What we know:
CATH class of chain B: Alpha Beta
Order of helices and strands of chain B: HHEHEHEHEHEEHEHEHHHHEHHEEH
Oligomer: heterodimer
CATH topology of chain B: Amidase signature (AS) enzymes
Number of helices of chain A: 15
Distance between the termini of chain B: 16 Å
Order of helices and strands of chain A: EHEEEEEEEEHEEHEEEEHHHHHHHHHHHH
Number of domains of chain A: 3
Strand content of chain A: 15-25%
Mean pLDDT of chain B: 97
Largest interface: A-B, 29 and 45 residues
Number of strands of chain A: 15
Low-confidence stretches of chain A: none
Mean pLDDT of chain A: 92
Number of strands of chain B: 11
Radius of gyration of chain A: 30 Å
Strand content of chain B: 5-15%
Amino acid sequence: xxxxxxxxxxxxxxxxxxxxxxxxxxxxxxxxxxxxxxxxxxxxxxxxxxxxxxxxxxxxxxxxxxxxxxxxxxxxxxxxxxxxxxxxxxxxxxxxxxxxxxxxxxxxxxxxxxxxxxxxxxxxxxxxxxxxxxxxxxxxxxxxxxxxxxxxxxxxxxxxxxxxxxxxxxxxxxxxxxxxxxxxxxxxxxxxxxxxxxxxxxxxxxxxxxxxxxxxxxxxxxxxxxxxxxxxxxxxxxxxxxxxxxxxxxxxxxxxxxxxxxxxxxxxxxxxxxxxxxxxxxxxxxxxxxxxxxxxxxxxxxxxxxxxxxxxxxxxxxxxxxxxxxxxxxxxxxxxxxxxxxxxxxxxxxxxxxxxxxxxxxxxxxxxxxxxxxxxxxxxxxxxxxxxxxxxxxxxxxxxxxxxxxxxxxxxxxxxxxxxxxxxxxxxxxxxxxxxxxxxxxxxxxxxxxxxxxxxxxxxxxxxxxxxxxxxxxxxxx
Amino acid sequence: xxxxxxxxxxxxxxxxxxxxxxxxxxxxxxxxxxxxxxxxxxxxxxxxxxxxxxxxxxxxxxxxxxxxxxxxxxxxxxxxxxxxxxxxxxxxxxxxxxxxxxxxxxxxxxxxxxxxxxxxxxxxxxxxxxxxxxxxxxxxxxxxxxxxxxxxxxxxxxxxxxxxxxxxxxxxxxxxxxxxxxxxxxxxxxxxxxxxxxxxxxxxxxxxxxxxxxxxxxxxxxxxxxxxxxxxxxxxxxxxxxxxxxxxxxxxxxxxxxxxxxxxxxxxxxxxxxxxxxxxxxxxxxxxxxxxxxxxxxxxxxxxxxxxxxxxxxxxxxxxxxxxxxxxxxxxxxxxxxxxxxxxxxxxxxxxxxxxxxxxxxxxxxxxxxxxxxxxxxxxxxxxxxxxxxxxxxxxxxxxxxxxxxxxxxxxxxxxxxxxxxxxxxxxxxxxxxxxxxxxxxxxxxxxxxxxxxxxxxxxxxxxxxxxxxxxxxxxxxxxxx
Lengths: 478, 482
């Protein structure tokens, strides 16, 4: 039988606020256990939550970036259950009235086809702490640093039909939240977590099959593998005449398998009800408009502009808009250097990125910022230096504070474009290599490269290659 | 000294009739000699209080006053967190809990110069109408030690009624300030919901809980409320609005005020001795120029059932944090996590608290939520609407605070529903979030009787004004138990 896979994703994006969603504690990752938990985070008696308005703004920003509805009156509810890392015995979340409603997220598939994935909703909630099992004999430690960290839970419609589509969607959401700077997207640190609801049904059926929810997936690669494993598992069950059980399954990356965590029968009754400690949140039009006005040009729009106005190829435009920082860097270099988009793009995606990759650093930590890099590109653009020399200049800039002009000046790397000076060098090379000249003139034109190399060597790489070529051709052919 | 009101003590301190040290010493001695009989205090902070009194006297000598309550002794209901001082909430769960922070109310009264003599007994987690639900034992009514002081702020009411302290803080979720005030012959005000910060006040039912003053007179309540009220950025449900001066308007004439008498409050369920006392009080108020009209609050009979869904539902969630993990009672040698939860909570909570957690958990459960919780919220809206309509034609609503005077210890412990019905006149104001005050207005069988006045939202100043004018021509509030 032909089976169709149906996938919906629930993504938890940790919002990049300075302080927690209901308290003033810092949200910084990696601090000593329980050093970033105050009386509110600890759920001490009598303390009360106060909503961090920044979390509201970030959620609204997400709604605007995905053309989603905004819950102008949204309500926090309590999700009640007992767990040691849940200090109050309930999680403050949103249930029937979330801050973000329905929206659409276009994803591009491998064959270039664009598919619209429906966004069901996104709601604000607080994260729980962490139970720590290592380091303790016969006991469990609780670290509440993470308790109260703001999360935006982004829920999709069951619109994806393969693991690859699910990954494309997850990557798209990842790119959006980073682009609008509401989440750092760090999957290793748990800032961006995906749960996948997976079911299968006979191809052509309208009715959804019984789903399982896969948790604990902390990379896109694992997401793809976990879904594929789960689809195979469900097909095996159904084809053997069995029934899929609705349950939560954990993905084990080491064994590359999912295993049952709890079934629906064991599921909690969370007894949601509106949190009486928090008033309904009113999102005023004024706030929405002020956020809209600060919203950056989004990735898709920017990419389209780079193609239509700057005439970058689709591929280059994609690379230059892979994240907001790259696009900003590119546009800054473009504007300050006065160079063509193609030249700026080539040097950023080539020399700059390969150096960053080699050293494993992010663009925003690059030793050469957009300002300094633009001068290098400018000197390439006005032919002060050749591409070969530019690499040498960049090396020097990488390890110090000097500007491109300072390096060129200090090292005497300025390109020689004065034709009389180059002419003299060409003449010298021709005079010194009579045999090769004869061979060239008898038709072995490949030797041109030899002459270019000789002149370059004589000029210590500084001769303007265009000028040099022109002069060599003239002299050799005359 | 202890027959003076807070306002009179303030003048006496100012004119140097006695010092704060003498005043606090006098009250501490009274607490020490009488608390054994009344059990009104669970903690006495003698050392800190006497030190604070010495400092207050020194400051006064150098002309440097903290605020309007400089050097005056008060008590705090043990539901308000006090930095460094044990805060039990009447429960074994918090028998040894010492908060590292002050409730906003505690902070504000301290800043105004008030000196805390101790923490008063209460029904466990403020759940009760008789103060028999305290882990630290029942409180006794100073008028008759065989009778209850009311609850849940029974310790505060008995302490003020017996003049073990001139004034106390209390909290009122369904009548917990007004009902014990009535039983103990004192004045108690529940402000508008959101008027007084709930930060650091251990939550019972968050949408109903409200802190307020309990004192001998309306004037003393005004003095305290002046300091307690106001927006607090740490409590999102506290209201951002200018604070009134509750003292300056006390002397206003009440000639012409319109007071509604709900027919539902004067029906067969009301003890005849209370009804008689109220008739006399109404006549007094008429002499002051008040006009009375009959009004209809048609949905009042639904308030007790609605309350006993909403309050337990919220409490079942609010009390989930007491799990034995981070603070509070933890059972010995837990086998595993479930055992830790079950035994810590089974041992830490008393019967009434457990009953309400169970009721509330049930009311919020899947399949029951709509039938119970949502329906109760709808009733709440109906009750609020009844009040709003009434306030279109009257300034205040008058009725009894309680259906009967203080009952005997043990009299109603066997029947929770009968106990719950004790709050039948006080609960509606909580459901609607309105301010209400209980004022002594007579005696029945030698026990105090309370009259309740309910005002419109944020109308505390006028409520206190009416109560003060009434107290200027009556002396029920000055009577002391023998």
